[in-house]
Structure formats: C-alpha cells, structure tokens
Amino acid sequence: MAPFRAAAQEGPGTPRGGADSLPLSGTVVDASGAVIAGAAVEVRSANGAVRTTTESDATGSFRIAGLSPGTYRLVVSSPGFESKEILITVVTTAPPLPLRITLAVGSVSTSINVQGREDSLIGIAASATQGTVGAAEIQSRPILRSGEVLETVPGVIITQHAGGGKANQYFLRGFNLDHGTDFAIFLDGMPLNLPSHAHGEGYADMNTVIPEFVERVDYEKGPYFADVGNYASAGNAHLVFFKTLPQNFFKIEGGMYGYGRGVFGVSKKLGAGSLLFGGEIYHDDGPWTHPDGYYKFNGLLTYSRGGDGDGFSITARAYHGKWNSSDQIAANAVPLVGFFGTLNPTDGGNSQRYSLQGEWHHQGANSETRLIAYGFYYDLDLFSDFTYFLTDPVRGDQFEQQDRRWVAGLDARHTIFSRWFGRKVENTFGLQVRNDWVHNALFQTEDRIRMPKTDSSTGTTLPATTQNDRFADAQAGFYAENKIQWAEKFRSILAMRGDVGLVNVTSLVTAANSGTATKFLPSPKLSLIFGPWSKTEFYAQGGFGFHSNDARGATQTVEPVSADNPYPNTPSTPIPLLIPTKGAEVGVRTLAFPHLQSTLSLWYLHSASELQQSGDTGGTVASQQPSNRQGVEWANYYTPLQHWAFDFDMAHSRARFTSIDPDDAAPGSPGGNWVPEAVGWVLASGATLHDLKGFSGSLRLRYFGPRYLTSDAAFRSNSTALLNAEVGYRINETWRISAEFLNLLNRRDHDIDYAYTSRITPTANPAFTNVFHPVEPVQFRIGVRGSF
After folding, report:
1. Are residues 588 and 536 in contact, defined by beta-carbon separation less than 8 angstroms?
2. Which DSSP symbol is given to 554?
3. Residue 211 in contact with residue 149, Cβ under 8 Å?
4. How do residues 428-482 score in pLDDT, each as one tens digit?
5. Cα(410)–Cα(773) distance, rounded to whole angstroms?
6. Which one, 433, 608, 645, 706, has the greatest CB density within 10 A?
7. How many other β-carbons are positioned within 10 Å of the β-carbon of residue 659?
C-alpha cells in the first residue's frame, strides 16, 4: 500500500459542514496517461469499512465531499486494470491537493472491455492494426447492404458482383478475397466462412447478419494471432452481438427500386437471465433492368445469464433468402442490354442457414475458461452465367452450383494467470475442432433446368452433371500462447499453433476422384510491444498462417468434363489441402495529440500458392506460383467535440507473383507478375454528428483505386468512389426518423471488374474484354424507428 498525504482546508470550495467536512478530488489514468472513465473509487476507513463510493467521469476525474479529518484507504479499480489502494491522511492545515492515480493493466491479455474506436487500446492491443468498432459507429453509417458492416474495418472493401443474396466480394491487403478466402469472420465465436464451398473456398455470406444487433466488431490484420487459424492471413473480424439491448425497438424503412425493410428487437428479464429476440424482413429489386426481387428473412433468439466473470448464452439464428441475379456483364454488351442490364435473366438462387450455438465462460482468481459449441445447417442453389454463349451457342453457358451441409464445431480455451520471477505472465491453451458433412454438385443448366451442353470448339458433349460429391471436411487446430510483461514498457506474445486438415471424398460421377487427403501445418507467431512513451506504443510482429483448399481438389486425379476442359479422362494433379502463408508487420499507435487516435503500419505477406479449386468449372484455377504482398495502412479517429467524430483511413497494397504468370494474361501475351484484381489504394473517410439537440448525421466517402485485371497489366479497371450520407432526428425518447442518400454524386462506377473471354450472343465473335458489375445509382431511403 503506497502512502499518500492529502491536505485540505476550509475555504470557498469546502462543502457544507465546515472544517470537518473536506473534499477530495483526483484523476484516474492508465500507464499511457489516457484517462479512465467509469473507474470505481471507494473511500474506506482504516479498518476497511466502506465510507463512500463514486466513479470517475468522462474526463477521468472524481470528487468526494464530506470527509472528516483522519486516515482513509482509497481503493480505485476498473475492469481490465489492477486495483490500486492508497493510504490517505486528510488534515486541515494545508491547501487541497488533487490526486493523480495511475492504474496498470490487470494482465497482459486483450480482454478489457473496449467498445469502440474512441477507446484507447494502448497497453491492450498487440498490433497497430488491431481494433474495435462499436454499435454507435456502426449504426451511424449509411449502408447499402448488411455486409458493409465490415467496411468499418479500416482497409476493407465490400462489393457485389451478382444478386443481393449472394455472398459479398471482399478486398483487403492486396487481395481480391473472392467471397472470403483469406478473411475470417465470426458471429459470437461461430465461424461464418465455409470450406469446400460449391461456389468458392471460404464462402462467407453476411446476409445472415442484422446490423442493429451488432454490439461491436473486433478486428485484427495478419497471421499473428494464435486463436484464429483458417482464412485469417489477411485479417479477421469477430462480430459480437448484444445479449441485452439498450432499448427495445422496431424500425421500418422504404426507398427507391422496391426497397423495403422491417426489423425489431426485444430483450427482457427471464428468470435469472435475459431473453433477446428479434427479426428482419427485407426486399429489394435494385436498379437492374431485370429486378433482383431479393427477399430475405432473418431471426435471432438469445438467452444469456451471468456477467463478464461467469456466465453463459445460447443463441439460435435463422436465415432464408431468394433472389434473381444481376450478374456482371461484358463491356461490349452494354449497347445491347444497357448499363444495368443482364444477358441471362434466369440467373439467381436461394440460400438458407439455421444455427444453434452455446457459450460458457468462467473466471477465477488465477485463470479463466471459455467454451463455444455450435452446429448449423446450410444450403445454397446458385445459377450463374459468366461467359453467356462462349461454350454452347444454342443452350448458353448457365450452370448451377449446389451446396448442402451440416456443420458441428467446438472452440475451447483455458488461460492461466501467474507471475514468473515477479513478471506478469499469461498462458493460454486452445483447441478448435470443426467438421463439415457436405453434398456439393455442379450442373450444366439452361433457364435453371439441368441438361447436357455441346462444346462449340470440339463438339464434345458436356454432361448435365459435371460434379457430384459427398464428403467430410474435418479441421482441427490447437495452440499454446505465452504473454509476458517483461518490464513496464515491454511485453511479448509468443505462440505456436498447429492445424490439421482431413478430407474424405466420395465422387458420384468419377470414382477415380474419390479418396482421402490430409495435411498438417505448424504456425509459429511472435509479437513484441514497446511502450508507451508519451501515449505512444510500438509493435513488431511476425508469423505463419494458412488457408484451406477445396476437399474435391485435394483428391481429384481426373479433370471433370467442362467448358474449361472438354476432353474426357484428362489427368489432374491433386492440389495441396492447406496453403501456408507468412507475414511480418511493424506499427505504431499514438494518442499524443488530444482527442486523436492514430495508427500506422507497414506489412508484408507471402502466400505459397494462389492455386485453388474452381467451383465454376470443377477444375483448378491457375497461378500456382507464390506471391508477395506488401503495403502501408494509416488509420485515424478524431473526436474534438462531444457530438462530433471524424475518421480518415488510408491503405495501399502491392501484390506480385514471384515469377511470370502466363495463365491470367491477355490472349497472345507471355504474361506478367501482377496478381489480377489485387486492390491497391483504399480510402475511407467520414464525419459523424451524434445526437446534437436530437439531430445526427453522417457523410462518408469510400474509394478504391484502379486494379490490374490481367497478370501482364494489359487490362486495368477504373477507380470507384462513392459518397453516402445519413441524417436523422430524434423527436423524443420513443421516435426517431432518418433518411439515407446512397451514391450522392450518382457516379457510374463499377462495384467490381474482371477481364476474360466471353461471347454475348450466339452469333457474335468471342471477345476478351473487361467484364464488370456497376454500382447502384443515386437512391433515397427513409426510415422511422420506435423505442420502447
């Protein structure tokens, strides 16, 4: 116990009661000097009896009046920090002396309750690119589609290249991540990504998320974090959902292009716990010549009990969606069908996902344990047509991808808090197990009817069933992580993770493609954290990661007969089941400037291969040579006034193959080393007004720069820039009205671009050209929200 002598005397600031009633004041801060709001401050008598309590305010300050002269024990505590006890003697012979109380981080863990970008992560985060976005910032953003919740993660771009019910296209750190290949997403700890998916590896459909129920998004970049394995090489995002709503609510929205949405949420006490339930109904046609007609229904039910120390929750989710598809079109088709047209109006699909998960946690004096168990059913029927009449000029090139699966998994971790030679130490041991029982198939179709096709170049008959497989895809990961606070301004995180993949495939079309495959990968990881000095912390990290490949590609020895390979019995070499990656990063995080949180990082990532199984053809995608990516990220969050927040996030990436890639080049080209569709410049910036006399609003700019579409850089996309706005007015405690303005500048940019060969009519010549999906034009939406 550190003695401290506080003196006070009677004067203008003395509370009523005279010299025997004295004030005590001070400020609570962390090791970096950042103030701690909501810290508990107790004044106890010398024998330990509590005399009075208060909390530090938003500036970290507290004031306690009514203390008589004497000796007291002042106890200050805050979640995630070590409590501090100070012996104080109050006298009347000297002027008052404000206290400055510094709390040390309670352990070297990152479990401190951070709720948004306005909260300090100094002393908590292991990286400059680790952060949290809270519900207030999520709700203040105008969004076109639910997946854009993830655009709160600096550097992430969310797009769409087909109907609204299809999973989003993700961009981050020099990757076109397709639908989630190297970006891991979790819903309250349950993985969203789907391995060995019929359409694309790591498929992550955010349509199952209702944005109003997201309490925060915790994100990390790079393969440096032991508790995340598959798909996390570029980054990961954990969506944490409310267990108890701040207010019960309902919301009705409507707008242009057939947009309509209703959502409600209710939470209430049930026995010793809390019950939360809600749902969403949604419809949108979009601006397309052939309307999307996208309907989706979401439901959420959660029962929870306990608090941060001990508790559990059980959550059920249900999603159903059905849509037509506004697929990408070739540039030379615009004169034929228009900018918002389609070359195949029967494209589209439907999808369902029903899940049940449970979570239990317990924290003792020297340890904590957390268990998550989950299971879900998922299915998808997707009809697409990307080349139109290139393969079969009579019946066209539409195909169907079918995915049915049951999934079960477990995530268990146990942490032990201790001291080694006086240094704070935290050791965590984790086990993650998941199994997917899958039935996948790929069919040739015309107007959604399965039928054989004829390849126009060879005359070969392409069977109606290209692939039809039943298989089990099992993944298990285990890790040990050690965190040590070596000194006041230096800590380290050392971890070793091991992952094993095991698949057992039964091909119902080609028996030679049945079989098993297994692969084990070790992934060491290290983070070094220095500081803080002058509210500034420095980071250095390195580590290994991976992403899994499609189970079918890992056992495939005969290439399926398809448009890419119209020759029966063509030998095929199985692809690796797990693809290793490795990366490094240095960064800095500072709060040195008042009200500004700023991070800067330089990073590098190497992937052993870009080779993947193609769900569109049943074969393997080229580009099996390694690739290197490097870049810089700069993120800023500024809150100069109580009701205002400004953010500016900038990222630039460079992606190159380590050798010439002839397969992704324009016809006749020897190829180059550019990774096609890799995102370069990304910029996101906004100004947000929070509840100023009932008014709120947000103005946001989102930009991502041009991308090379072929390895030889012969084809290049244009940049995309969108300006969106939202304004709202809270009429009273019950009612709020709002309006959203999307693509305010009505730019005719592209959501996504590709370059490949297609034929737009049965009689046209094949052409290698830019293929794109346009952004939606300017549109207006209004909403009303009631709270109760």
Report:
1. yes
2. H
3. yes
4. 999 999 999 999 999 999 999 999 999 998 999 999 999 999 999 999 999 999 9
5. 39
6. 645
7. 11
